[in-house]
């Protein structure tokens, strides 16, 4: 009897360096799948600028349906200078927003790790950032980005921050569940001293915590949290935030490792998970085989976590760390006197080391 597990991945390479970095993520997925007893079938679909050029819209119906029918979605990046003059629904980024809505994802997960091998690449002191391992859990579909009413009012403008109890409760549950798998500590970030909506946020998060007494909870105002992320990032385990604060804090923390090319993300909570690197399409280096694929590869590790292949996900992260420990660096991380590894060469190294990291006592699938 064949017990091999299989997963159908909707592969959305996108624009710029998206095809290059996600290709290496698929290479790693195939390698760890073979080692851990499962297979991955990736089917390519258009989104963003590439979709606009081919179909006239940033999210073709065929792409949307393929994503909804898949086990997971792996996305590269969207956008580029050739579409800068596009407006409204013809913006490449509209495709991504529409896809998130179609999938129903509401929880954005952004891990920020600083391996000891890369502590020296950070703009902060190595002894301050080395060993950092933070998971930002950001609410993705509410808050000021989606609140109404909004718009221009005479000579002014208005945007409304709004959250319901249900929206806060469901994202809080995600944070506490993730903390149980990690260090058991949640820091909830708000501005409850001046914002009514933050008062509600704090009340609901505290109520959810009553059902999770095994997890430690503390509250921080967002301005203090920003200072603490830079001053002592290793104090954090899981950081729970609303949409606006999460956007700002996770981008701030992105500076800790020294390169956006290291940071993955996952958007989950809906019918199908969406996994993508934090970085953009970097059109200035597209097609040169010099981009850092680490963020895309680590996004693939998050994908494996979500489909239940946690041992393979850990193997991917081990493969990245092992390649870095061995001295492999892409151009964004290499010192002036070091030879930089290409996108594809780094991907091959990670794939080999990830596949080789299967424990000797691993159960037969």
TrEMBL record:
Residues 343-365 are annotated as: Disordered. One of its GO terms (cellular component) is cytosol. It is found in: Cytoplasm. Binds 1 Mg(2+) or Mn(2+) ion per subunit. Residues 8-350 form the Isopropylmalate dehydrogenase-like domain. GO terms for molecular function: 3-isopropylmalate dehydrogenase activity; magnesium ion binding; NAD binding. Pathway: Amino-acid biosynthesis; L-leucine biosynthesis; L-leucine from 3-methyl-2-oxobutanoate: step 3/4. InterPro entries: IsoCit/isopropylmalate_DH_CS, IsoPropMal-DH-like_dom, Isopropylmalate_DH. One of its GO terms (biological process) is L-leucine biosynthetic process. Its EC number is 1.1.1.85. Mg(2+) binds at residues 223, 247, 251. NAD(+) binds at residues 80-93, 280-292. Homodimer. PANTHER family: 3-ISOPROPYLMALATE DEHYDROGENASE. Catalyzes the oxidation of 3-carboxy-2-hydroxy-4-methylpentanoate (3-isopropylmalate) to 3-carboxy-4-methyl-2-oxopentanoate. The product decarboxylates to 4-methyl-2 oxopentanoate. Belongs to the isocitrate and isopropylmalate dehydrogenases family. LeuB type 1 subfamily. This is 3-isopropylmalate dehydrogenase. It comes from Salinibacter ruber.
